[in-house]
Write a structure and sequence with these properties.
homodimer, mainly alpha, Arc Repressor Mutant, subunit A, Tetracycline Repressor, domain 2, 2 domains, DNA-binding, Homeodomain-like_sf (chains A, B)
Chain lengths: ~220, ~220
DNA sequence: GGCACATCTAGACAGTGTCAAGTTTAATGC
DNA sequence: GCATTAAACTTGACACTGTCTAGATGTGCC
């Protein structure tokens, strides 16, 4: 029953060996959870299936994430980090003027949503993540802060002090969020066939739409 | 064990009597399902809890809706009808020019979302309803058709023939959908405190935002 | 080297959706 | 009015779920 595995070093790689201690189960569970999420969606998510996929018993996840909510909260926080990375990638490739940068974070938002629809749903349309969790709140506030800062630079007023500027923030946020949601749920495809078009053309259409809330 | 209930007529009222045949179980289950949805949300929805709430056994719903998906599909279709009603109420109260009517269906969309957040989530952010269901598809297309028709009247071009007009449709839809989603999920409250303001003021703010995708 | 602690397994529990079989009532045909 | 058919509903079974408990196993610290 006991395979002693005297082979070389127990150097924390060799992930699939049947050792009693996994060695790196936390990240492995997050990876398995995302795969499950992609395959089965947020709603029929199963913690036991995640454990099975990671090759551990059904009780193992509790030691790392408490309960299912804890695991999904950690995954959603990772989602926010990935959202921010997608936005920064677009920002780096865009012109440095404020308007271009504002559009860039919008394009990054849509990029993230279409590339990670299951995660998007988990982050924005699910009650399962605990929004008071520190990592979750921190990452989501960072993403929101980027928007606020760029709108402030664009309109020249602090949204927290100027209602008109805050309306610009809300309008920009609603537009990009609604657009991403409609695209990744497949509601736009039938109307505009974005997936059939070259990337530059899709970007141009999205840019055109994202400009509307802020241009005067 | 058998209460014959010879009282007067078996006239399909007397809903709570312990008869073997409920008499009107379909609608009663829909009502119970919505109550459960409001109390527990889309994600921890339980068919057995719905049956218990309606006072029937856990197997009873299958005879009316097949499975849980069937019940939630029927409920989502009702949701679309209610959305349309909310839009028509706003349209009736609004000026008859195209722009006012377009804003009216947007305000009705937001009205519906804030009044029925659980239903909104079910209709727009859940995989549970069967989107190929006839009643569901019909009602959702009716709602979408109102938007298309009004945008067509507003911009003077058929969105299905004119890409620019279709972009106007998508932009308007994304804006109102994103705005409703952000409001009913509580993300806007902290920023604008809409629920604290008088209705007319909230309407004015939403109107201002909803105008942006279409004004040139 | 021994001991405390973190990690993980295994079993139990109440709850879930769906299926099959049986019971009760309503509707239909004559 | 009465038998027969169909619809409505109950009941029990099944495999599955998340979480709790107790126990087994390995790691790291002193």
């Amino acid at each position: 029953m006991i395979l002693h595995m005297t082979a070389s070093s127990p150097s924390a790689s060799r992930a699939s060996s049947k050792r009693y201690h996994h060695g790196d189960l936390g990240p492995a569970l997050l990876k398995a959870a995302e795969e499950e999420l992609v395959e089965n969606g947020t709603e029929s998510f199963s913690l036991r299936a995640v454990a099975k996929r990671a090759g551990v018993s059904h009780g193992a996840p509790a030691h790392h994430f408490g309960d299912a909510k804890g695991l999904l909260t950690a995954l959603a926080a990772i989602g926010y980090d990935r959202l921010i990375a997608a936005q920064e990638a677009r920002q780096a490739a865009a012109a440095k003027d404020t308007t271009s940068q504002l559009i860039a974070i919008g394009l990054g938002y849509v990029d993230f949503g279409t590339a990670n629809p299951a995660l998007f749903r988990l982050m924005f349309s699910s009650e399962k993540p605990d929004r008071t969790d520190e990592a979750f709140a921190s990452s989501s506030l960072t993403a929101f802060g980027k928007l606020v800062d760029l709108v402030q630079a664009e309109v020249g007023a602090d949204p927290y002090a100027d209602t008109a500027a805050m309306k610009d923030v809300v309008a920009s946020w609603a537009m990009v969020h609604g657009l991403a949601d409609l695209i990744l749920s497949g509601r736009i495809e039938r109307l505009m066939g974005l997936s059939q078009r070259p990337q530059a053309e899709t970007d141009a259409i999205i840019t055109n739409i994202l400009l509307r809330p802020i241009e005067r």
